[in-house]
TrEMBL record:
UniProt keywords, alphabetically: Glycosidase, Hydrolase
Domain Glycosyl hydrolase family 13 catalytic: 27-435
Region (Disordered): 433-453
SUPFAM superfamilies attached to this UniProt entry: (Trans)glycosidases (SSF51445), Glycosyl hydrolase domain (SSF51011)
Entry keyword annotation includes Hydrolase: yes
InterPro entries, per the entry: GH (IPR017853), GH13_cat_dom (IPR006047), Glyco_hydro_b (IPR013780), Malt_amylase-like_C (IPR032091), O16G_dom_2 (IPR045857)
Family per similarity comment: Belongs to the glycosyl hydrolase 13 family.
Name of the protein in question: Alpha-glucosidase
Lineage: Bacteria, Bacillati, Bacillota, Bacilli, Bacillales
Record has Hydrolase as a keyword: yes
Length: 578
């Protein structure tokens, strides 16, 4: 093991045997975080400039969105070199410096690895295109067309087109679970597994502290490629044949054995469509696969199942059901990562809170929620400021992310649907909402850039920015810092049991977090209006002399401790019980 790695290891402060559970992870979407050289694109030196801001948040780990060389059609999720930094983001020296700066502050650095597919510009794919007998051909998945010459089966990609693209010169189709320019790697090929393991090893040897593994549960496909019955489903209709596929556990165990087990790191698997048993298989420690699965359900609570671009209203009971499943019913030793938004979803305050009249209050309530749930919390940059969706997007040209653009094209150009309706859907949900530049100040470039930003800055930077919140003890930012501190000081908030209270209440979300030493009660009003709450009798006694660790309105404490109170919109209370 390298010297650097030893130094990194001894500087870690959360060196318990369950450190993956105790981390609080901050997602940095590098492109939109901070631009150090005025080209309008966030970069590694930009992250370095903000290192003290990140350390002051109190987070224990940072996950960097992909920074590898890439044509950026999917902003780094289309890799052309797993061992080199994209020049837009900086150099390897910048990276090494950043890694050291994080370690000096006891912050872990988690890299993103994209193992399911490469870019079609990756040298392996370019070789593969040269002919059926090229040694790289089998790095990807090729099949002849069906009898009528069309694609080998009826699956759709996550962008809604066929999962197969025809290559004229060699007369075969290749599989792409995502966009046509993201060909799927063939994980059945041991050489592919060796390449990806080698790349992961390269970053770990440098002393990085783990990976967010992109789309970790789709690597193994049913290689018979049967037709899907889910023909109503617009995106990803072949999913039943590759989610948690036949060899997935073997592949992950191989990664664990050959790579992860040699370093003091943790791994977070991104995955769509997992059930309790799947997460147990992936994360029970004795199975030696991943440390946690990132739980996607809360951020998809409004998505229609056959078309993720169509929304359904959500009710608090849906959220309670999701949490009961993942925080109470999941095996005690299995583990999830918890998030309400990331770079693939809209901003949490805009879909779970109220980003107009009650923006600040609802952003605070949601930060209390995220920081008091079981699981390893992941927060997205800007969430700590209560950053909102980009309501100023008004035309399709405002959108840069490929899934939204592909949907628009599919529905309008190919299926002849009403452009206005489709535009409305796309404006509501696109992934650029969470990718607008960080709002550091109220200046023209929001303190993000002195140049022309790659994506438009939200004009609400004048009310929502870090500089102003820094000086306001009651800001969302300062509450987030307190909540992070509280979670770190009281392991019960991470590891304790989760027990819902008032489960049938339509607007109040209350739960107990307990271990042998401590009991905590969290009471949240998820509604835009004032709401009456009556606490159960057994809790009233325990509340009489309880400490209110965090509360939105002290004048309600007396009523609450008597068991009944009228709580303001988005009120929040966190009690340490006797
Ligand atoms: C994951 C990433 C997303 C990306 C996709 C394809 O879902 O989070 O941003 O587009 O995988 O790699
Ligand atoms: Ca830059």
């Amino acid at each position: 093991m390298s010297k650097q790695l030893d130094a990194a290891r001894s500087s870690k402060q959360l060196q318990t045997d369950m450190h993956w559970k105790e981390n609080i992870v901050y997602e940095i979407y590098v492109r939109s975080f901070n631009d150090s050289n005025g080209d309008g694109i966030g970069d590694l030196r930009g992250v370095l400039e903000k290192i003290d801001y990140i350390a002051d948040l109190g987070v224990t780990a940072v996950w960097l969105s992909p920074i590898f060389d890439s044509p950026n059609r999917d902003y780094g999720y289309d890799v052309i070199d797993y061992r080199n930094i994209h020049p837009e983001y900086g150099t390897m020296e910048d990276f090494d410096e950043l890694l050291q700066a994080f370690h000096e502050r006891d912050i872990r650095l988690i890299m993103e690895i994209v193992p399911n597919h490469t870019s079609s510009d990756h040298p392996w794919f370019r070789e593969a295109l040269k002919g059926k007998d090229n040694p790289y051909r089998d790095y990807y998945i090729w099949r002849p067309g069906s009898e009528d010459g069309g694609p080998p089966n009826n699956w759709t990609s996550f962008l809604g087109d066929s999962s197969w693209k025809y290559h004229e010169e060699t007369g075969e189709y290749y599989l792409h679970t995502y966009a046509w320019h993201q060909p799927d790697l063939n994980w059945e090929n041991p050489k592919v597994r060796e390449e990806i393991c080698g790349a992961m090893d390269f970053w770990l040897e440098k002393g990085t502290d783990g990976f967010r593994i992109d789309t970790a549960n789709v690597l193994s496909k049913d290689m018979r490629f049967p037709d899907t019955d889910e023909t109503e489903r617009i995106q990803g209709s072949g999913e039943p044949f590759y989610k948690n596929g036949p060899h997935i556990h073997g592949y992950l165990r191989e990664m664990r054995e050959k790579v992860f087990s040699r370093y003091p790191i943790f791994t977070m698997g991104e995955s769509s469509q997992v059930e309790l048993e799947d997460v147990e298989k992936y994360t029970l420690p004795e199975r030696r696969e991943l440390d946690l699965i990132l739980m996607i359900e809360a951020s998809k609570i409004c998505d229609e199942s056959n078309d993720m671009w169509q929304s359904k209203p959500w009710e608090l009971r849906h959220m309670k059901d999701i949490m009961r499943k993942w925080l109470k019913d999941l095996h005690d030793e299995a583990w999830i990562g918890m998030y309400l938004s990331n770079h693939d979803h809209v901003r949490m305050v805009s879909y779970l809170g109220d980003d107009e009249e009650h923006r600040e209050q609802s952003a605070k309530m949601l930060s209390v929620f995220l920081m008091t749930l079981r699981g390893t919390p992941n927060l997205l940059q800007g969430e700590e400021l209560g950053m909102t969706n980009a309501h100023f997007f008004s035309t399709i040209d405002d959108i840069k992310e490929q899934q939204a653009l592909a949907y628009y094209k599919l529905m309008v150009d190919e299926r002849g649907e009403d452009p206005e309706t489709i535009l409305r859907r796309v404006l509501k949900k696109n992934r650029d909402h969470s990718r607008t530049p960080m709002q550091w100040t109220d200046e023209g470039g929001a303190g993000f850039t002195t140049g022309k930003p790659w994506q438009r800055i939200n004009p609400n930077k004048s009310e929502i920015n870090a500089a102003q919140q820094e000086n306001d003890p009651d800001s969302v930012l300062n509450l987030y810092r307190r909540m992070i501190r509280l979670r770190r000081d009281h392991p019960v908030l991470t590891l304790g049991t989760y027990e819902p209270v008032l489960d049938d209440h339509e607007h109040i979300y209350a739960y107990l977090r307990e271990n042998d030493e401590e009991s905590w009660l969290v009471v949240l009003n998820f509604s835009r209006t004032a709401t009456q709450v009556e606490l159960p009798f057994d809790l009233r006694d325990r509340l009489t002399e309880a400490d209110c660790a965090v509360c939105s309105d002290e004048s309600k404490l007396q009523d609450l401790s008597r068991g009944s109170a009228d709580l303001d919109a988005y009120a929040y209370f966190v009690f340490k019980l006797n």
